[in-house]
Amino acid sequence: MRMLSALVLAVSVHAVGLAQETAQTFYVQLIRGTDADKPQQASWKPVGPKLSRQFTPRFRWKTYWEIERATVIVAPGKVTRIKLGAEREVEVDLHKSDPEVRLFTSGVLSRRCRDSLRSGMCIMGGTRDNEESWFVVVRRDPPL
């Protein structure tokens, strides 16, 4: 009887521990960097001030436009994947002890990000052509 009670107690403690782990919310943005003063599409918006402060000293573009935004809720121990535009997918992996973000371009893994996600923001990108670049931002705080 004591063995059964101990087993029930151990399972209960484990279940409570799992229940205390909560899903994490991430905000994903597809950004275009360009020298154009106006957006190419009416739906594009200028990036917020926090993101602008991240981009301006590091990259050469005059303006940064948010093309698409998504909110992703990832349960502990799970992997969640979302599509951004026609060519890109972002995978947020909370399966390991270190969270990881993976960027896929045309179905092929192109970038990974681990350490910077702990600090709150992961920025990955590439060139579109000589006139502009694209960026994918995965962050913990909601964009303004």
Description of the molecule:
The protein is α+β, with helices and mostly antiparallel strands and 144 residues long. The protein has one domain. The protein has helices at residues 2-20, 49-55, 115-118; strands at residues 24-34, 45-46, 63-74, 79-84, 88-93, 100-105, 108-113, 121-129, 132-139. It has a five-stranded antiparallel β-sheet. A four-stranded antiparallel β-sheet has the order 4-5-6-7. A hairpin with a 2-residue loop joins strand 8 and strand 9 (132-139). The radius of gyration is 20 Å and the shape is globular. It starts with a helix and ends in a 5-residue tail after the last strand. Mean pLDDT is 84; it is low at 1-19.
Short description:
This protein is an alpha+beta fold. Helix content is 21%, strand content 46%.
Which keywords apply here?
alpha+beta, 5-stranded antiparallel sheet, globular, disordered N terminus, 4-stranded antiparallel sheet
Ordered list of secondary-structure elements with their pairings:
Layout: H1 2-20, E1 24-34, E2 45-46, H2 49-55, E3 63-74, E4 79-84, E5 88-93, E6 100-105, E7 108-113, H3 115-118, E8 121-129, E9 132-139
Q: Main β-sheet: number of strands, strand sense, barrel status?
A: 5 strands, antiparallel
Mean pLDDT across every amino acid position? 84
Strand content: over 45%
- Globally, the shape reads globular
Question: How many E-type strands?
Answer: 9
Q: Which stretches of 5+ consecutive residues score pLDDT under 50?
A: 1-19
Computed Rg = 20 Å
Query: What structural class should be given to the helix and strand makeup?
Result: alpha+beta
* Spatial strand order of the main sheet: 2-3-1-9-8
Order of H and E elements: HEEHEEEEEHEE
Our count of domains comes out at 1
- Proportion of helical residues: 10-25%
